[in-house]
């Protein structure tokens, strides 16, 4: 059956609907983010208005029960093509087909093409979407059907990518022109780091395969701006335009405003956890293996002594039974015992389990350093001296030392802190620099606000680091509350230094609100007697007795405009340097707030000078 044919009437309700041509078409726009023009429309079908079969779900379910799914799909396509042509629509028409319907369409390719052309529609304006309705049992035999249709000039799309049936296998085998990302990944992407990273992966593969991506299910301005700034070409969803019989010639006003918004999105991936962010977080225990022989459970203490004497650098020996570790003997502990009078004579021929740790720490070689780091917080600290046993599917492969574990965990934590602060979990220096670079690249106007706490060190000295950490977390919460998460980026540089990259138009009100909220709220961290006298007694940096007032917040702001003056290009390091200057000025102000223009600050710091000239008062590098 081709698109130009109908099933015989009277066989069923669905057949009658098709024969009587009571199906109607609606069209949902697909927008090109580059300029906001409508690229085309997805044609969708509806049953008779006011009936139980008006909704497409009910209509196709009934067709499936009656064995008319393919017939209904072809009828839906005929209706969409005829209506689309009669409306004089511009752009491409996207039509949904199951694999079975596409194979059937190939068999009547010539007559179908002729029918479409008679309606005045160029074949190269059609995009056939392979839907997720059913799995393809044999992709190898299905691929030729797709190829035959594409030979006519028709384009091919993979619909609902990310669902069970729209897999990477199909993407690789069928090489679609267009891939439509399932709405699950797009809905809420502005606040979901995992969805963001999943779409990033799809985007990377699309770049390699040459396919264009369509983000389906866009329902909010925040999601649209994130998808736009990711560099995805096309979008579809209720926020852009709802399916309608009256074809929209432009996308909805809210979508037009979002596409034209001057601010850039704050990517949710910037707040991912230190473990996920750190490139070293995936270091596995396999890299820490110390290759060492093991002893059988039947070995004696004399066997242990002989092994330690033969291998003087071996810190411990594992005891195994059927290749599975059951105990660990620490070298130092064992040798100290044997140094006692008569111990060798008394215990030499006794079983080695006598002096063994029968509950050693066992670690699978695939375990990451961050997973192993949980050992550092355990009550059992014997692994520091004994080390631990590394296994592969519970079978012994070697040993690990506590020293190497501590070193590896420390290195991973240091590296991770560059991506996310371990106390506040806010983005660290690398994401901060990356976001500044994106702002500069997109020529966005923003305010880089360097935040510092006055008199924080004396507070720490008086109340201790635990209470100091609570103050830092409170500062982070206050600043986060002042930010619009879709426009304003909040990062933790380190210690009591934060950086806010404001794009909100009311940025100054937000900053002042944060100052007041912190200065008022910080009082609750002081003891009553210190609140009564207005501060605490302590020592300054030279050790002189000094009275310090309460901890307060200072914010130095730099206005960055989307222009280059005199050919000078300011990057993240220069912007951070001027922000640090503004922070120092803010700490000298009674209200703790100071604003400076980037060019003015750069002039004062000589950042405008050519390479090789002296640059003074540079802020610590964010990278």
TrEMBL record:
Tree of life domain? Bacteria
MF terms in GO = cyclic-guanylate-specific phosphodiesterase activity
- Every copy of the GGDEF domain together lies at 444-598
The EAL domain is annotated at 7-257
Family matches, as Pfam families: EAL (PF00563), GGDEF (PF00990)
Q: What is this protein called?
A: Phosphodiesterase
Q: Which organism's genome codes for this protein? A: Trinickia dinghuensis
Q: What is the lineage of its organism?
A: Bacteria, Pseudomonadati, Pseudomonadota, Betaproteobacteria, Burkholderiales
